[in-house]
Automatic annotation (TrEMBL):
Record-linked Gene3D superfamilies: 3.40.630.30
Organism placement in taxonomy: Bacteria, Bacillati, Actinomycetota, Actinomycetes, Kitasatosporales
The protein's name in its UniProt record: GNAT family N-acetyltransferase
Domain N-acetyltransferase: 5-170
Pfam family, one: Acetyltransf_3
Organism: Streptomyces sindenensis
GO molecular function: acyltransferase activity
Length: 175
């Protein structure tokens, strides 16, 4: 039976699972995720990074989540760049799923759950995301969640040693 997807706030105790996934997937993720320093791939380095994300959560600028399949951590979903001001009320969604758990709908489900957090917990009005032009699986995840592309940001992100364009996506959440 396929395991159910859920999301929750990240915890320092998630560091070891995340480091293990990112070590295993370092090569597979190279075209899609920015290069990281060596300590990104260690539990200690991840723990420090998680503390930083939780400081951002306390400041109201980020909602840092993990994605679970059953009770196993399989990835991250992060609502970043949160602008809660009444005339903006927007945030940007980013995510990754470990290669061992891909193509089972987990990212699509996790983004749907993150949109619910944005609406119901963070009271946001607009969701944004950015994908590589060639990242068709990530684009499917967004389309399935009602996002539409609205533009291209040129030379916007350094991936695998070259500046790549970003396809920009939006989804209006409500009033
Ligand atoms: C992108 C990513 C998050 C998708 O996670 P996932 O859990 O496998 O996603 P889902 O199973 O929910 O959906 C994948 C979709 O891509 C489709 N897909 C898979 N491989 C594909 C390919 N080569 N070409 C086109 N579509 C493809 C699947 O059929 C599915 O679409 P569907 O819902 O219409 O059937 C995951 O591959 C990942 O973490 N990749 C590396 C890091 C990354 O790209 N992060 C996002 C940066 S924007």
């Amino acid at each position: 039976m396929p395991s159910t997807t859920s999301i929750r706030l990240i915890e320092p105790a998630d560091a070891a699972a995340i480091a293990a996934h990112r070590v295993r997937d370092a090569e597979a993720f190279r075209p899609w995720e920015p290069a990281q320093p060596d300590d990104f791939f260690t539990p200690r380095g991840q723990e420090e990074r998680i503390e930083g994300l939780l400081a951002g959560y306390r400041a109201g600028t980020v909602w840092p989540g993990v994605v679970l399949a059953g009770d196993e951590v399989i990835g991250q979903v992060t609502i970043g760049g949160i602008l809660p001001q009444p005339h903006l009320r927007r945030g940007s969604v980013g995510y990754w799923i470990a290669s061992v758990a891909q193509n089972r709908g987990h990212a699509g489900n996790a983004v749907g759950l993150a949109l619910r957090v944005m609406r119901e917990e963070l009271n946001l009005h607009r969701a944004e995301a950015s994908t590589n032009l060639e990242n068709l699986p990530s684009q499917r995840v967004l389309r399935r969640n009602g996002f539409t592309p609205y533009g291209v940001a040129h030379a916007a992100i350094l991936l695998d040693g070259s500046w790549r364009d970003g396809l920009l996506w939006e989804r209006i959440l409500g009033d």
